[in-house]
Every structure is written in C-alpha cells, then in structure tokens.
Amino acid sequence: MTESALGAPVLSVTDFSVDYLGRNPVHAVREVSLSLARGEILGLAGESGCGKSTLAYGVTRLLRPPAVIASGKAIFHSREGYEIDISQLRGEDLRQFRWDKIAMVFQGAMNSLNPVIDIAAQLEDVFTAHRPELSSQERRRRCGDLLERVGVDRRRLRAFPHELSGGMRQRVMIAMALALDPQVLIMDEPTTALDVVVQREILDEITRLRAESGFAVIFITHDLPLLLEISDRIAVMKAGRIVELNQAYELYTAPRDPYTKRLLASFPSLTGERGGFIRSGLSDDRLAQAEDQDRGTAGGRAETPPETPSDGGGGQARTKVGEG
Ligand SMILES: Nc1ncnc2c1ncn2[C@@H]1O[C@H](COP(=O)(O)OP(=O)(O)OP(=O)(O)O)[C@@H](O)[C@H]1O
Ligand SMILES: [Mg+2]
User: Fold this and answer.
1) Is the distance from the beta carbon of residue 49 to the nearest atom of ligand 1 less than 6 Å?
2) pLDDT digits (tens, 9 = 90+) for 47-96
3) Which pTM value belongs to this model?
4) What's the mean pLDDT when you consider all of the chain?
5) Is 221 in the pocket of ligand 1 (CB under 6 A)?
6) Which ligand is nearest to the CA of 64?
7) Is 28's C-beta closer than 6 angstroms to any atom of ligand 1?
8) Domains, the chain, ranges and CATH?
C-alpha cells in the first residue's frame, strides 16, 4: 500500500538521528523516516538495542543527556488542521503538547505508578495539570469513566497500585495515556511483562479503543507475531535504521530485507501455523495462496484472531499550516 492510500498523516518523521554522546558515542537511531497515518496502528519491531525506544523518546522529545537529536525532525499534523514541528517546542508548550496530542505508555510503565497514592489521585493529576478548568467532581467522574473505558471497575479508583494485578495496572497506565484524547499513542512494550491471556485482553482493548476514538498507535515490541496480528503496517528496525516498512500482510508474506526474513524465521510460531498470527480482514484465499507458495502445501491455516478494526485510515486531509 502506498502512503497516500493510507490517508492523511498524523505524524511524520524525517531523517531522524539520535546519538548517545560519551567516550564511545552510540548512533542509536540513524536517519529514520516514517509517517504514521491517522488512526493507523504502526508496529515497530526489531531486536533488543536496535533503537526502538530511543526513536520513540526522541520523537516525543523525552530524551535526556547524553542523548542528542543529531538530525531530522518530527511534525505533528493535528486533526484541527495545523502542524506542529515538535523539535521547535519548548517548556510549557512541549509539556502541554505531550499528553494532549501524543501520549506514551512507557516500557515497564505499570511499575511506575506511585505505590503510596491511590489510582484516583494519579489519574486526577493528569486533569489537574492539563485541564485545570474542570471541577473536582468532574475530574473524579472522568477518572471513573476512563477506568471503565479500559475495562476496570470504577470502584478501583480507591485502590492502591499493589492492590491491582499487573494487567490492571497496565490498563491504568493506558487509561492515563488516553485521558486527554490524544491523536497518537506510542506504546513501548506495553504487554511484554504480562501473561498471554492478559496480554490478549489488553490487545483487544487497544484495538477496540482505537476503533472507538480514532487515535493512531506506534506499537513497539520485539514480538513480531504479535505485531503481525494487530498492525496495519510494520517497520523493522536494525542497528538504528528502518530496514523495511510495509503493510503487515506484505511484510509477512513477501519480506524483502534479509533481516526481516531472519526475524520472521526466528519465530517458530510463524513458520508453523502461520495464519493464526495474521490479523483478520485478510481473505482466506490470499492467505491460502501465500501459504501454498511458501511451503508448497495446501490448507492447514489456523483460526484467525478475534475481530480487529479493518480500517486504519479515515482521516480528513487538511493542509493548513502554522501552529494556532
Ligand atoms: N542512556 C544511554 N546511554 C548510552 N547508550 C544508550 C542509552 N540508552 C540506550 N543506549 C543505547 O542505544 C541503543 C538503542 O537502545 P534502545 O533502548 O533504544 O533499544 P530498544 O530497541 O528499545 O531495545 P529493547 O528492545 O531492549 O527495549 C542501544 O545500543 C543502547 O545500548
Ligand atoms: Mg526499548
């Protein structure tokens, strides 16, 4: 699929490089260009240390020294019709921008909840900081609504983090990220620490919320089978570069880069009952054809996963430029 067929971009990253300075400088991200379409789930895959988190932190300007953005820029295209050059944001503007327009669920986030403060207070903090005009009653109501959106009973507002399971804590982190109705959600290994059943529930939740709210997602994980299932497109990263970026189905059935091929081959689940990892919306014919070509055999397709939204795009193209 060409980028234009995907719909209007919500985020475009051009020629983006990040170095960690020091005695032995690390070129962690090298000349990465990609664009995220409105409402799309873009998977970012690659082995540990290839630069996935650094790219995400760089784009959202969360990097600290010794990291420096060595080149490139990231432009946010708001649904309201204006553009923001994220690299030019400073101070309060940057702080406002971050939760409001692009929110992140960090790697290991569920362990970053403050253990001595209840869930309500931690969720309310987001509203206090970003929506100071809300009454305390309204804030409390929104926090309850948010919890319910991510499948947690609102009575849990009174709970402390240690009273919640890992899955629930991760849902709270997702609720927090969704609090201000962001247009982009960057999730860095959001389910890696969870068991497979809980992981499945949370993935379903994310795809459901995406369909409901229309935000776009950059989903980072080294778990390629998982990405194949939930992503519209996948970018494969190696040693700081994106070596391949394609529609999930194309990347799976016709990988071009040798590294992508090796990565696919490293997951036995993909070389076995491959179809089970393909997101729904693919015709059985195409899948069977691909498998026949690949293995010279017929049939044997596993069940397709539960429903995921089939339409990632759907945004209106707006071109008015200039921050309002
Ligand atoms: N604070 C730092 N100082 C120096 N080098 C760093 C720092 N943080 C990361 N790096 C290096 O930058 C490279 C990219 O790291 P990064 O954490 O972005 O990888 P990743 O793809 O997110 O890995 P993982 O899958 O393990 O989370 C690695 O070589 C890492 O060692
Ligand atoms: Mg990482």
Assistant:
1) yes
2) 999 999 999 999 999 999 999 999 999 999 998 899 999 999 999 899 88
3) 0.83
4) 84
5) no
6) 1
7) yes
8) 3-271 (3.40.50.300)
